[in-house]
Amino acid sequence: MKNCCEYLELLYAIWWVGAVAVPINCKLHPVEVSGIVDDAQARLIFTDGGEVFAPDIPLPGCRELDREDMGAFESIASTALATPCLRQADDLAWLFYTSGTTGRSKGVMLSHGNLTAMSLCYPLDVDPVSAEDAVVYAAPMSHGAGLYNFIHVRRGARHVVPESRGFQADELFGLANWLGNVSLFAAPTMLKRMVEQARRQGYSGEGIKTIVYGGAPMYLADLKEALKTFGPRLVQIYGQGESPMTISALSRKVIADRKRPDWATLAASVGRAQSCVDVRILDPQHKPLPPGRMGEIAVRGPTVMQGYWRNEAATRQTLVDGWLLTGDVGFVDDAGYLTLTDRSKDVIISGGCNVYPREVEEVLAQHPGVFEVCVVGEWDAQWGESVVAFVVARIAGTLDEASLNAWFVERMASFKKPKKYVFRSELPRNSYGKVLKTELRLWLKSSANDTRVP
């Protein structure tokens, strides 16, 4: 289902009867939806109608209920249980399927206890919530944005679904002006579009209380522009489906304090560990590393998932000695600030040296002519791997390899410089807005020598 008021009603109805919720992004292809429904062994699916399932994939035992069939919905509500089915903290509540940017989605098992711990941590570590607040669902409720409902339900706040049922910056600004005290989750790409629209219409954040961003890298150049436009309204969170919203947080105070001499360093981090979890950095043998040393980020605490649904092998690989191995690479400084350098699988090893795509992207994103950039590795007979940058220009045709190289070598070691630039009109994304690096790598394997593509 797209974002709608019924989504929340149905979510809590599912738990009222003691069942498990499986949120599915309506932007997924019918084949993807069918795969999730089949793997989850779902028995009932609520939809917006249309072609939801792949016609050639049988799903025995699963009944579809169309949102537009309000008669059926009301008939179910009229026969609801008078009292809820009581569940325990360890009982499964939410089966969240990962976005699958590198392969088949896995079902993350989150318990009622996981969701409760997440809800209790948020006002302590991210942003206090009161009954006077309003949360606006501009991002898909089936993903991270939907998790914000728990915090705001606990405080009796308002829940607002835009008329568009999605993200439109001008519509969002109108709601903020009308309602006041508005909070929302925004991926960095959304925040970037909000900045552009705000400048077009002369809007400076009136009515917005908090913009929580996360889910993808936020480049310093973009963060500076967002601060100029919206002021001290920004908070960053770092989490995963396996520990939703609750690994670390970077406070609005730190983000807004541009006068700090270490501001750029702190703003490039994802903040400190949230109060309900422990975070450590591990070496390849899973031994803890001291501050400043780079390794895999691991987390433990009451928000960490129970495991992967019907996938014991993946669970054993990811949950080790009580720690969730995130697959992210980073380090913690002496003050406890956590900095992500990249996903471990995305690190490029060129000529025996590690190159982290995030740091290359950060430099290129500061170029005034670059709108978006994504860096991946490509097989190289001489170096093992070489660095490739996919670039979206602010104005088509205004960038070339020479100008970007000149910009880069003034700011970073030349061995990290991209060996190739691919100029595109846009970057491929999954239904949650994350850039599909797998798709870019596949394109490189199959592409001809011409690197200037539509």
TrEMBL record:
It comes from the Bacteria. One of its GO terms (molecular function) is medium-chain fatty acid-CoA ligase activity. Keywords: Ligase. Residues 359-434 form the AMP-binding enzyme C-terminal domain. It holds the Pfam family AMP-binding. Residues 1-309 form the AMP-dependent synthetase/ligase domain. GO terms for biological process: fatty acid metabolic process. Belongs to the ATP-dependent AMP-binding enzyme family. This is Long-chain-fatty-acid--CoA ligase.
